[in-house]
Amino acid sequence: MAQQGVNMATGSTRKPLFSAKLAAPSRLADTVSDAIAAALFDGRISPGEPLPPEGEIAKEFGVSKPIAREALRQLSAAGLISTQQGKVARAKALNGEPLERIYGYAVRSSLERLREANEMRRVVETGIARLAAQRRGKAGLAAMERALADMQSSLGDPAGFTEADILFHIGLALATGNSMIRVQMEGLRSVQREVSELFSRRANRTPADWNATIDRHRAIYDAIAAGDAELAERKIIAHFEAADIASLEVVGKLAPAADGTA
């Protein structure tokens, strides 16, 4: 067992970063990746900081280099570290990039997956709005305020308006002070972008429609800023109900083409 002081496996005086009970051989890579991930999540390794070399990781865990390499591959695929050929792996800040890719593939695959993603957002964000109102994190409130201003200045500009909309919902997550909720909301950015792109195809979207969207977001912000969890929940439900109507209009026009019948 490695102790503080001289590491008997490596001959190094560095305090071991990782701690884990190794499992059966077929799961060694999983155990190593779990232990490294724990060090990333609890701050023993900060974002941007290099991990020990592959060989040192293998020695510290008492495993082969291929197992250490597979553990690093798993962490890279999960978006927790960055790796480059010939360079040491580095820790990445926890973010929703991996989820965003998955959701992006899903919602672009079919209208049914897009409907499901919208339904998921409604369920998830209703709870987030309540928690945001209870906690009212300053960073989240500031992000939502900035997003409202950006929405107003981006009227008629679908791309700019979409980015402001995404910022608002990230702010909603930040206001909860929960890092896992923030990651989830970051992952949903691809869903928001896809929906916004569909909305931009509505030939009849008027300035009143744009302003109504801003008003709904402002009502959510006001409820959260006031600390009224029940009102925040009602306002975000009302927002999604209005968005659902617009979604049905868009999907109704696109469905024949998607089915190959147009």
Please provide a written account of the structure.
The chain is mostly helical and 262 residues long. It folds into two domains: 25-91, Arc Repressor Mutant, subunit A, CATH 1.10.10; 97-258, Up-down Bundle (Four Helix Bundle (Hemerythrin (Met), subunit A)), CATH 1.20.120.530. It is 67% helix and 2% strand. The protein contains eleven helices and two strands, in the order αααββαααααααα. The protein has helices at residues 28-41, 54-61, 65-77, 97-109, 111-135, 138-153, 158-174, 179-187, 189-199, 207-225, 229-258; strands spanning 81-82, 90-91. Strands 1-2 form a two-stranded antiparallel ribbon. The termini are far apart. The model is unreliable at 1-10 and 256-262 (pLDDT under 50).
Number of strands: 2
Mean pLDDT across all residues, rounded?
86
The CATH fourth-level homologous superfamily of the largest domain:
GntR ligand-binding domain-like
Q: What does the radius of gyration come to? A: 23 Å
Order of helices and strands: HHHEEHHHHHHHH
β content, as a range? under 5%
Number of helices: 11
| Percent range of helical residues | 55-70%
Major β-sheet strand ordering = 1-2
Shape: elongated
Classified by CATH, the class of the largest domain is Mainly Alpha
Biggest β-sheet, characterized? 2 strands, antiparallel
Low-confidence stretches: 1-10, 256-262
At the fold tier of CATH, the topology name of the largest domain is Four Helix Bundle (Hemerythrin (Met), subunit A)
End-to-end separation = 68 Å
Count of discrete domains: 2
Secondary structural class: mainly alpha
Question: Helices, strands, pairings?
Answer:
Blueprint: H1 28-41, H2 54-61, H3 65-77, E1 81-82, E2 90-91, H4 97-109, H5 111-135, H6 138-153, H7 158-174, H8 179-187, H9 189-199, H10 207-225, H11 229-258
Antiparallel strand pairs: 1-2
